[in-house]
Structure formats: C-alpha cells, structure tokens
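Continuing the batch. This is chain 6 of the set; chains 1 through 5 are on the previous pages. Same settings as before, nothing changed between runs. Recording input and output for traceability.
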Amino acid sequence: MAFLPSPDGAKKSLSAAQAKALLATVRPRDTAGKARRRVAAELIADLERVYQRSKQADKELKELVASTGTTLMDLHGIGPSGAARLLVEVGDVTRFPDRGHFASWNGTAPIDASSGDQVRHRLSRAGNRQINRVLHIMATVQLRNPTEGRAYFDRKKASGKTSMEAMRALKRRLSDVVYRQLINDVTATAATGSGGHRERQQTPA
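Output for chain 6:
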C-alpha cells in the first residue's frame, strides 16, 4: 500500500495502481510541486516493482506447495504461505497421536480457568506460535465470509461465549480440521503414491 497525501479528501492508504491513477490527475505548476510529484512517481514505481516480485514469489511458492501433493490449500483460509509454514513446522504429522496432542503443540488447546460454578478457559501461551498464527489467520478469513467457521463462531456467541472465547473455540476446531487434512494427505500418499486434490473445504467439522 502507498501512503500519499492526496487532494479533495481522497484516502491516504492506496494501492500502487490507485496512487498512480491519482497522481496522473495532479499537475503542479511550481517547482516544489513538480519535485514532489516526481518523487511520488518514483516511489510508486518502486512499489509496483515490489508488488510484481511479491506476486511472482507467491506464484512460485504456490507451485512448490502444490508439488508436495498436500491438499492444505483446499481449506478455506489457508494460502500458499500458510500451507508451506504448516508443512515445514509440522513435518511428520503422524508424530502426533491424535488431534488433541496436535492442538496442545500448536497452542490452541485452551487451559481450564474455571472458578466455582463458572466454567471458563483461558488462552494457552505455550505451543508453536507460528502455527498458531496460521490458524488465527485461517479463522479470521473464515469469519469474513459466510463459511461454516463463521456459523460455528456465531453459535458459540449465541450460547453465551464472549467474542474472544468464541474465537479460541474456532481456532481449536480449525486445528482439528488441519490435523485431519494432514492425516488424510498421509493416507492418500501411502495408498496412491501422491496426494490427490479435494474440493475446497469451508467447514470446521
């Protein structure tokens, strides 16, 4: 994103393309204004080059992840970088006896903080923070769209959970989804020698 002062109340946070279009409408007459416009044009050109390099890197990463045979990118909210991070950090998923161990490892298994008749859980600060971040992004993406993850979150809120508690519950549920997908990939690879592709999933079932 480019951050440029703009006339007529235009927003300051712009994409490189938006900034370029806006700059094309500016025609300063004084020397200082012309100098500022030239500097802004150079900055925008730099941003466009960075964007193109980033776009190419994302394409290459997506191809590399796909070549592993994983179906992680079929999950709603998991992109190439998230899938790559999962593959690198998790390694052999069969080292986790079950989904509960996987959740404890990635820090999505809540810690009991109940008091008397009030049942509460608090966030675990332990676990792999990089994978926890991947799951947080996955949850955030699902909440922005009409997914089963969004429906699950809303059901938790309707049952009396706070937004923070509902988010923790959703991340724990998504941890199970990712674990199952990784296990399915291992099973598919063992059976066929390659991981097949599946339909994109939205559901933290």
